[in-house]
Amino acid sequence: MAPPIIKKRNRKYIVCANCRRRKTKCDRRYPCSHCTKAGIKCVYKLKDGTSLDEVNILDLTRDITSKEGSPRADAQSQSNARGCTSPILDIKLPKVKRSIIFSKPSMTVFIGSTSWIWLVLSRPSFKNLFSGIDSTMHKQKKEFQDNHKSISHRLTVIDSDPEQLAIIQLTEDIICPNYYQFQERLVYFQNNLNGLLYSNFVPMDVVHSLFLSYFTVNDGTDTPSTASSASLPADSAGSGRLSKFLPPKKPYLYSDISLITAIVSLSVIFTRYAANSPFHYQLTVPADELISLSLKLLNASNFRRKKTYQGLLSLILLRSCLFVFDNIEGCHQEFESYPMLQTCIDYCYQMGLHTDPDITETFLFKDQLIMKTRSMPNSGRIELWNYLQTQDAYHSIAIGTPILIHYEFCAKFKRKSDSFFETTREEAVMIMRKLSFVINSLRTVSIREILNLISQVIGFCYRIPAAKFLLPGIPLVGIDLDEVAYLFKLKLLTLQNVPSLCSMIMTGISSLHQSNPELLKNMETMNLLNGLSKEMYRQSILSIAISLHHIRYICEGRSVFGPEKNGKYVVYFRDLFATSLGQSFLTWFIFLLPRATKNPELIGELQNETMLFSYPPEDNGYPNNIDLVVLEKAFFHDFNGQSVNLGEQLCTKLMSSSELTTFASSFHEALRDNMIMKSSIDSYLIVKSIVVWPYIIGTIEECKASLDSRQMTVRDVIKIARTKVEKEFNEGGVNDSGDQLERMFDSLFADQDWLNVDEIDNVFEKNPLAELNGDGDASEKAWVVDGAN
């Protein structure tokens, strides 16, 4: 009789190696609570003692769109993430979506799930640590406002009886002496801005006709074709009248003059800091006065009751003047301009512009000849509706508010052709709308759904590589720079959503560890989630680095948009630069600070969200200088077959304090003389805030001994850093001269070992809204939450 076969049980360890060695109860998370408290690396090993291999995250998500970038590829989204069949990725996670209402007696503001501000709100310890700097930036905001006194700009909520005589007098005082100046700037807008900003939907033939009908040249003066600055009358800049104003017979016609003035205002904003003025006639009236006149004329037209194409166009252009391409109204154009955007969309609903003009009949029941000369062509109406769809989608994901335009009732985005430019425009709108519908809706989502969105965003950016914007080795011939600028803006608009989406994935993985511990007993599942967290960490860091390098290339004049640092394309990108710079630098600092200070509170906060310990490895940094090409090579590894090791090496180097300090130094140098960025309050504060990060890091080095001996806390260090920042700001060195900034950066590198701080004794308050409990304005005090001030 054969001896019985003894089967050996092939057990797998389900506790970490440290807890098994110490014989303590392990909670089976990654990292487990014991390893987190002890500050040691949590490792799970197989029976033979080897570490678990990292799952290849490349199989989780694949590009779901064709290389041509057709929006029809959205139909393939259900087959995305086919490389991984783990059911844990399909679990609905209610804690992934978050929203908050900031409320005070004077204001209530809602922030939804897609807003990048959650990158800060999810880290209360960091918020409380940084709260000592907010009042410093608030002082800078007040200083800017005191030095840039502006005229009060407002639209009436309901129509009121305007003071027509006063408006007529103001129009005569501003426009009549500057007849040729206005005419010249209308032509400039037609040739240089109408296509770039509004896809030529502003009917300039109608605008020129209206201008000539309301303003006639006085007898005896030169004609526009023969007049010169030397032949103008001596009083042309003062009380003289080169032209005569013919006031409208009916109030609603004041919207015509409002549109004319708004167009001239935009031309002034785009050219006031140009190295070489494109105009022959100098206009001394500032943009602020022109905007004020345009608003008064629009209010006088009873535009809310008397809806005209000219009133709608004037409203759209004034919104651009007040908040987008110039901004002296507030620190956050997404929030401040949102009511005007809603008004524009409501205007379109009531005028029927949301319908398809090809199938909607128009009936002219009065003054048919006049109406035909004042109406917009169908092509212009389509482009106007495309523009508002783009703005609606962007603001929805920037603030987290619901989409205002629904395709069940409205016409969809309609491209003019199947060219790469037109299909890319449409695809960008569809991606942003999908982001809003998936993330901002009330339904719960799974990790796989968010992975699908990340794949779409990265795939879209992959089809617009950095090579399109960098200076080529050959002359630029036959390239439409306006189209290139539009594509660049779309790329950055979509790219800046990656950190928020990756953060949601990491939050979802952390939620799975807490709510589904039984599922995590499977080592393959744990390895899968751990590898996914690492991928999201890498993509977050790489995406913000790509955004910053893109912006720096343009600000330094090393792009296809030319060497001029105050040209029209920099004005066109101004609002996007302000938003991306604030978001990217702050996100970079949030990830860097725990690693730099070794502070257990900050480290624990980061680990609770990312479920990563000591990642990326500190001894695996990228050996060469980081540039935009290598960043995109690592970021698009799913599409070009690049190993994830390159991304890990880049993240290791980016997570060094010296890299942040060096980059901030060169970036501030590029922005120091940029009048466009310094002329608006939101971008001005961003330029100021760039130097805050190195000051904080440098102060930690100076106080290292006191921190080690527990004589000081991190909050004390922040107070010292705040004092130094205020001193530099008050002396004006950061604004006007690079000497003080250069000395500061030199002092930071005097000792390369200044960040070896073993432990910082610090206890933070856990209230994420601590800055909002004071008597001040929430939008002014909690500048980190708002993102700009």
Note down, in words, how this protein is organized:
There is one protein chain. The model is unreliable at 47-83, 221-239 and 732-789 (pLDDT under 50). The chain is 54% helix and 2% strand. It has 35 helices and 4 strands. With 789 residues, the protein is an all-alpha fold. A hairpin with a 2-residue loop joins β1 (100-104) and β2 (107-111). It has a two-stranded antiparallel sheet. A two-stranded antiparallel ribbon has the order 3-4. It is elongated, with a radius of gyration of 29 Å. The chain has 3 domains: 10-53; 164-404, no CATH class; 464-501 and 530-786, no CATH class.
Which characteristics define this entry?
single chain, 789 residues, mainly alpha, 54% helix
Low-pLDDT windows of residues? 47-83, 221-239, 732-789
Q: Which percent range describes the beta-strand content? A: under 5%
Form type: elongated
What is the terminal-to-terminal distance? 86 Å
Main location: nucleus
Domain Zn(2)-C6 fungal-type: 15-44
Subcellular location: Nucleus
Keywords: Nucleus
